[in-house]
Amino acid sequence: MHSTRFRAFLRGARAEAPILVGTIPFGLIYGVAALSAGIPAPLAQAMSLIIFAGSAQFVAAQLVGAGIPALVIILTGAVINLRHLLYSASVAPYTRPLRLPWKMILAYLLVDEAYAVAIIHYRATDDAVPHRQWYFLGAGLTLWATWQAATAVGIFLGANVPASWSLDFALPLTFIALVVPTLRDRGSVVAAIVAGLAAILAFRLPLKLGIIVATLVGLTAGLLAEPRLASDDASIARQKRP
Fold first, then answer.
1. For 137-146, how does the pLDDT look when each residue is reduced to its tens digit (9 = 90+)?
2. What is the pTM of this model?
């Protein structure tokens, strides 16, 4: 029993490993940015431990550096992390039978990269597959440990990271790698394309609201495309009948 759980945990960790190529430079950049914004090193590391959400931490560091009031920083972080509600709704059908301690742990680990790995596994398996929560845990803890270590190294290096390394370029590549495997039908492709275009158009909205706008527009486009695509498929099927 324990060996089966451990194997599921290791499979989740291995599935998460390729994504860490983008996570490590992201964490390094955050550590450097936090110190540059005047955040003390212990507090910068504590943000990674407590918030554990890279984009929200980056924006919080920028706002702290600009002298923005604490309430505005908290509200901005909450808006940026609204997408986690969507992640939660997506995995809820699979985690509903779990006990509360399990749900609390997995909810804490439910960030972009861990969600992508976990939801692909959930959708590729059925309820008869045992210990799927251990797979999720393996992916999430691997990401969590890497993020904490990368943040610590970034804080240690401080401003000594050369700009020529262009570490920030790894972030969009990481998210592209997360999204592509989940595009399994035309509805999701439509949602991704529309959300991407909306994100570009809404990039300059205040408080990083462009993220939420792009999410809502993409979801709406995907939902509207579903009935049309289903109708088109049905029409094609009827035409193929002898």
1. 999 999 999 9
2. 0.71
